[in-house]
Amino acid sequence: MSKISELRMHARNRKLPPFMELGALSSEITLHNLFIYYDLADNPDNLSGTKTAKERHDHAVAGVSTGKDVYDLGEFYNQIHTDEIQLNVNGLKIYNTRFAMLAPGKHIEFHMDPPNIYNLICPLTDPVVLQVQDYPERFPVADIGEIWFINPSYSHSSRHESTETRVAILANFEYTEETYEHLTRIL
Hints:
By secondary structure, the protein is α+β, with helices and mostly antiparallel strands. The chain has one domain (19-185): Jelly Rolls. The chain has helices spanning 3-13, 27-41, 49-58, 68-72, 177-185, and strands at residues 19-24, 77-81, 94-102, 108-111, 117-123, 128-132, 141-142, 146-150, 156-159, 166-174. Strands 1-8-5-10-3-2 form a six-stranded antiparallel β-sheet, with helices on both faces. It has a four-stranded antiparallel β-sheet with strand order 4-9-6-7, with no helix packed on it. A hairpin with an 8-residue loop joins strand 6 (128-132) and strand 7. The longest helix is centred in the first third of the chain and has 15 residues, at 27-41. Residues 61-67 have low confidence and may be disordered.
């Protein structure tokens, strides 16, 4: 993707809100996902903190999400990629499902993501405060089991105040005209 088309896509994405609640998991599906997480977390080979940092660096928005800070994430932030996660949001073709574990007292600092990959977050163990840099609205709190869209074209961060490791589901879905129209209809 050329830099011009990337900038155009970021500008178009900015017509969507920075965050949007898309639904919630049932208690049964939340429990299922936690069971899968605890089963996979027992094996340290499933953790991909360094791989996650490299991927973030390789696909980062230049000048916004690169450098040493991205690689430092691997010290307190890990992911487990699996297709066993159940996450259904009507009308969206979700892929790259993973559990994201953030150590207590740590936060994902402000960053932007590529404009053609949309993000979802669904907290499993603790609520997450979603923030947008220089955005005047109040910051929403994603409660356990809620599924939230995160707009990649806003500089965003996530915070949690728990004394335990926070576990959330992350997933992606592709930017397409159909997806963009779907999101604008549910505003």
